[in-house]
Amino acid sequence: MLVYVDGSDASMRAVKRAIALGAAGARLSALAVIPPKLDRAVVSQFEIEEDDLDERFAEEAMARATGSVEGAGQRVTAYIDRGPVVECIVRRGLSGDFDKVLVGRKPGLRYVPDLSDTLRRKPGVPVEVVT
Fold it and tell me: What is the pTM of this model?
């Protein structure tokens, strides 16, 4: 089982689902992604950050997820990949190591496709959407 974590409440619901599957014997892994940086000069000269905030955020999201899994008495393998989010999830999900990729989704109506919608359209990626 691979669960995508991004620090959101939706991804933490996916972590809870992973914990339930882990209790039934599934081997758990978690994936956080550090997205490509925007060209800060194009965005604004005032938005330049010296620290890699995206990396720190991914590490904190992963620590929260792995802490929940380990707090439930289970083991989890953590991956933090760098690149476009969908591409990283697809690559990891198709690696042959996972039967299912868990992705959280905000409940309610949406007018714009979200990550789970995009992943469902990727051939061969065994996605389970958790609401």
Answer: 0.88
Measured in degrees and rounded to the nearest 5, phi and psi for residue 35 equal -75, 160
- The four Cα atoms 22, 63, 117, 102 give a dihedral, to 10 degrees, of -10
Residue 30's H or E segment, with its range, is strand 28-34
CA distances 21 to 2, 16, 50, 69, 120, Å, are: 11, 9, 40, 11, 20
pLDDT one-digit tens code per residue, 82-129:
999 999 999 999 997 899 999 999 877 767 678 999 999 999 999 999
Taking alpha carbons only, the member of 28, 36, 39, 33 closest to residue 8 is 33
Number of Cβ atoms within 10 Å of the Cβ of 57: 15
36-84 pLDDT, tens digit each: 876 555 555 555 555 678 899 999 999 999 999 999 999 999 999 999 9
